[in-house]
Amino acid sequence: AQKVTQAQTEISVVEKEDVTLDCVYETRDTTYYLFWYKQPPSGELVFLIRRNSFDEQNEISGRYSWNFQKSTSSFNFTITASQVVDSAVYFCALREDYQAGTALIFGKGTTLSVSS
Amino acid sequence: NAGVTQTPKFQVLKTGQSMTLQCAQDMNHNSMYWYRQDPGMGLRLIYYSASEGTTDKGEVPNGYNVSRLNKREFSLRLESAAPSQTSVYFCATLGQRNSNQPQHFGDGTRLSIL
């Protein structure tokens, strides 16, 4: 069963629009960690944010904000006033405490295209 | 990404050839991982090593072998490459298992099997 679902495969916006990338996860673990990574066209994976399961405080970093809601098992990512440089593939990932090796479970990614 | 180094960055193989992808880290991390990334599939775990001397299968291990040579190095071997193994391969490391620290990724190896 898929544990991390990013239902939006591709999103296209025009510069300065706000955009929200959805992430829904599934876990039976009480302690887990959620992450967002960005993969620009150059191909490397850039870590953006992490969130512990026991910390539901939302976070804002410049134009980026994250909304973590345990009640709906969601960890959504909003970019305010999008820019062309935001064009990338964005991955949401889950790490469960009990899982051997503590590997990340990735969603399939959302490709964001921002046009000028 | 200075902490995790993958070699080579690009490689083209013919079906049936063998090859080893190298990964080295200088962060003194215990855990190391190999993922593959395919279009529309996200990243999937091939093998991991929780500590030096141990390795375990991930979600998609078939056709691969790994070796944790020492704490720094974790290699991925394709014994007989197949076109289905055309992918981008990422190596990653993690310092503490029960922490909220992110995994650190290498820049990837783009592998094409003809």
Give a brief description.
Chain A is mainly β.
Tell me what you see in this structure.
The complex is a heterodimer of chains A (116) and B (114). Chain A is an all-beta fold and 116 residues long. Chain A is built from no helices and twelve strands. Chain A has strands spanning 4-5, 10-14, 19-21, 24-25, 32-39, 46-52, 59-61, 64-69, 74-79, 88-96, 105-106, 110-115. In chain A, strands 2, 5, 6, 10, 11 and 12 form a six-stranded mixed sheet that branches. In chain A, a hairpin with a 4-residue loop joins β8 and β9. Chain A is globular and about 45 Å long. The termini of chain A are far apart. Chain B is an all-beta fold and 114 residues long. In chain B, 0% of the residues lie in helices and 49% in strands. Chain B has no helices and eleven strands. In chain B, strands 2, 4, 5, 6, 9, 10 and 11 form a seven-stranded mixed sheet that branches. Chain B is globular. The interface between A and B is medium-sized, with 22 and 30 residues.
Question: What is the fold's blueprint, element by element?
Answer:
The complex is a heterodimer of chains A (116) and B (114).
Chain A: E1 4-5, E2 10-14, E3 19-21, E4 24-25, E5 32-39, E6 46-52, E7 59-61, E8 64-69, E9 74-79, E10 88-96, E11 105-106, E12 110-115
Parallel strand pairs in A: 2-12
Antiparallel strand pairs in A: 1-4, 3-9, 5-6, 5-10, 7-8, 8-9, 10-11, 10-12
Chain B: E1 4-7, E2 10-13, E3 19-25, E4 31-38, E5 42-49, E6 56-57, E7 64-67, E8 75-78, E9 87-94, E10 104-105, E11 109-113
Parallel strand pairs in B: 2-11
Antiparallel strand pairs in B: 1-3, 3-8, 4-5, 4-9, 5-6, 7-8, 9-10, 9-11
